[in-house]
Structures are given as structure tokens and as C-alpha cells.
Amino acid sequence: MAAFTPPLLCAQSSIRTSTGTSQLVQISTVTNGVYTAANINNLVKFSSTRKIALQNSRNVSVKPVAASSSAVEGATSKSDSSMPGGEQKTMKVVGVFYKAHEYAKDPKFLGCAENALGLREFLESKGHTYIVTDDKEGDNCELEKHIPDMDILITTPFHPAYMTPERLKKAKNLKLILTAGVGSDHIDLHTAAEKGMTVAEVSGSNVVSVAEDELMRILILLRNFVPAHTQVSEGGWNVAAVAYKAFDLQGKTVGTVGSGRIGLELLKRLKAFDCKLLYYARHSMGEEKEKATGATWESDLDKFLAACDVVSINLPLSDKTRGMFNKEVLNKMKKGAMLVNNARGAIVDVDAVKEACESGQLGGYSGDVWYPQPPPEDHCWRYMPNQAMTPHISGTTIDAQARYAHGVQEMLEQYFSGKPLPEENYIVREGELAGQYQ
Ligand SMILES: NC(=O)c1ccc[n+]([C@@H]2O[C@H](COP(=O)([O-])OP(=O)(O)OC[C@H]3O[C@@H](n4cnc5c(N)ncnc54)[C@H](O)[C@@H]3O)[C@@H](O)[C@H]2O)c1
């Protein structure tokens, strides 16, 4: 790459972020001399001392700086063995999304099978074949027909296409699996790694959507909202039947298990409610984030559980977290504490949660994640007491759909032009699993 030149509209430029990393960005708009750069494409080696404000991973403000021949040491794009390297090969792309039927009319509803993440024109104009289906279960489903010759698979956690070792082994041409959203546990990541496949998701795309939803669930449980709403919808009126176990959030101890992107966003939101905030994590999130949230790190899970009135789970589903909230762990929580789980259904033991809701060990359980998805009609969580369950909705708001659809298109563009994907999106790369899945 040539030496740094002041950014022009629609040009690419290397910048150094406030966190010290260097990035290649696409300059898209300019207001009052401040350039907005989107589409962070690439990591480059770069030694400028210029600092810019990194607002979030996809939106950077860049002040133009005079050209300097010493600014760029040289851009080194890490090559990725799975990239087509700029070949013009046409590919078979398969997308698996939930069907929206009568709700699909609004074109902004990008996440459904009918609107196919808004990718059809983009893919077909490049000569690629784009097959989209919601039919993902069993040996005779539509997805199975395409597994042997698909090149790219796009899936979503909201309607997960379970990519078992058997399915991945049959997928002889499959090189790239993209998750429209966050959480790629529906893919057998170890097999994908063994087979040299790349798995990537749109990291950060729906973390605010989930954190807002978790805050809502915490309030819904504490206020005993669901029985109150059911009561009036059914023609009843009984204040006592709700008020006997309705509580304020203020003054309670609320904790998140996991303090990654969602855990942090939740803590930031909870700060306004004047509660005591704890987080359980493998590492401290650092002084700056602790100060910003007012949260305290507890590295001992037993002590953490014993202290919390409300616990929110914000972990990926991995070999280490599967079944983590079993009967023994639930019994370490305060009697009557509330549990919110928007992470993954399989992180908790289904029967242990049901029994704890029945016995009152859990004062309430709320979440939007199940295993499998969709769950059977007779799944016990639908019928247990003290629950505020929903289908998997928190990360698929219309706003989140726009972000993850954009993120998927961006990754496809990168892949087709032989460039690496945004660093933070990789879940499996060159045989290695991302840190959060280890
Ligand atoms: N319900 C939804 O719609 C929805 C949407 C987005 C994400 N999610 C789920 O939430 C999860 C978290 O998302 P995120 O964006 O915050 O991810 P993240 O990678 O930013 O954070 C995950 C955190 O968990 C920690 N962690 C992993 N294993 C751990 C262990 N064994 N013990 C303690 N900590 C551990 C990691 O160190 C990391 O800090 C996703 O993996 C996904 O499963 C759900």
C-alpha cells in the first residue's frame, strides 16, 4: 500500500485507532472536516502516531491529517487459506432463516427467509446461486439436499441449522460459514476447524438489543409482571396475588456471568437503577470498565451466586459452559433469586431449572433461548411456574437485523475479493477456535 494520503470520500485509508490498533477503513461521509469511516476491512501494519476516536467497531471518526511518507510501514493483509483469492468463481450460497409468511411484507424485515438478509440481488448480480430455506431438520429437508455442493452457508441462531459433524463431513465444497448474528454454537466448531472451514459471525451486531431485552426481563421477573398481565387479560383483578412477591430493582444485587460485549452493555444499563453490581468472569474487565459500570469482579462463582438476587448469564455455549447451571449450581444461588438466560438454552440443565422454579429455589426464570430451537410443544419450560419465557427474539429486532445483514454482506464482499474478514468476527480460522469458545 502507498503512503498515507488524506482521506477522500469513498476512498480507503489507513488509520490508527485510540486503542492503538491499525485499521484499513472506507471513508464514506464528511461533516465539518470530520470524516466518518465505515467498513473496517483489514488489519494493517501501521506506525503513525495519529489518534482517532473509536466509537464502536464499525464506526470511526477520522480527522484528515497531512500526507506523510513515513506514516505507513506497509500494509500486510494476513492471507486466509479459505479465501478464493480474487478468482471469479461463481459459488453456491445457502441461507437458512426463519419463515415470516404474512409478516414478510416489510422489506426492512431482512432476517426472514423471504427477504433473505437482502442479499439476493448482491449475490445473483455476481453470478452466484443463492438458495434460501427454513427447512433444516431431518434427512430429507431442503438444507440436506444442498449440503454436498454448497460453497458458503449463512445461518442464524434464531433458527439454527444444526451443522453436526456428519453434515459438515458431507459438505465437501464448504469453505465459509457465516452466522447472521452472534453465537455459532449450532455449528460443530471442532469439526469445522478440522476441515479447514472458516466460521465467522457479526460480532457486536445485536449486543445492545440483547442487553436491553435482559434489562426488561429482570424488571418483568422482579415486578411479577407476567401473572399480573395474564390476570387482567383473563378478566381478573387481584392485587395481592401479584404484590406479595413484587420487588424494586433498586438496592438489589445483580450479577452477570460473563462480562464480554453483552455483559458489559447490561451492566452499563443497570448502573442507572442504583443496584449493587457484580460480574463473574475469568479475568477482570479492567479498571476503566469497572469505573464506567460501578461493577465489582467476583472470581469465585460460589461467592458470586450466594450474593446475587438476580443473575444474568452472558456466556457463549462451549464445551466448558454446556450444562454449567445444573442442580448443584442452582442450589448455590440465594433462595428465591431470579435467573435470566438470553445466552444459550443448553448452558442450563432443563429439568434442574424446572424443578427450581417449582420449588421456589428460583423465584423466576426468563430467557429466549432453548435447545433445540424450535423446542417441542411439550417442552417443560412452557408450562412451569414462575417463568417469563419467549421464543428467541432478543437479538433479532429490526435494528439488529439491519446490522447483521450489513455485516454478512460486508464479509461476503471481503471473501469474494480475497481479503480477510474483520478480525473480531472470526470464530474458526485456520483450524483455531476463537478465545471465547476455548
Ligand atoms: N439471545 C440472543 O438473541 C443472543 C444474541 C447475541 C448473543 N447471544 C449469546 O450471548 C453470548 C455472549 O455474547 P457476547 O457478544 O457478549 O460475547 P463475548 O464473546 O463478547 O463475551 C463472552 C464472554 O464470556 C466469557 N467466557 C467464555 N467462557 C467462559 C467461562 N467458561 N467462564 C467464564 N467466562 C467465560 C468470555 O471470556 C467473554 O468475556 C453469545 O455467545 C451468544 O451465545 C444471544
From TrEMBL:
GO terms for biological process: formate catabolic process. Transmembrane segments: none annotated. It is an enzyme of class 1 (oxidoreductase). The keyword Mitochondrion applies. Residues 120-422 form the D-isomer specific 2-hydroxyacid dehydrogenase catalytic domain. Pfam families: 2-Hacid_dh (PF00389), 2-Hacid_dh_C (PF02826). The record marks R344, H392 as: Important for catalytic activity. Substrate binds at V182, N206. NAD(+) binds at R261, I262, N342, D368, H392, I393, S394, G395. Residues 216-394 form the D-isomer specific 2-hydroxyacid dehydrogenase NAD-binding domain. It is found in: Mitochondrion. Its main location: mitochondrion. InterPro entries: D-isomer_2_OHA_DH_cat_dom (IPR006139), D-isomer_DH_CS (IPR029753), D-isomer_DH_NAD-bd (IPR006140), FDH_NAD-dep (IPR033689), NAD(P)-bd_dom_sf (IPR036291). It comes from the Eukaryota. GO terms for cellular component: chloroplast; mitochondrion. Catalyzes the NAD(+)-dependent oxidation of formate to carbon dioxide. Involved in the cell stress response. Belongs to the D-isomer specific 2-hydroxyacid dehydrogenase family. FDH subfamily. This is Formate dehydrogenase, mitochondrial. It comes from Ceratodon purpureus.
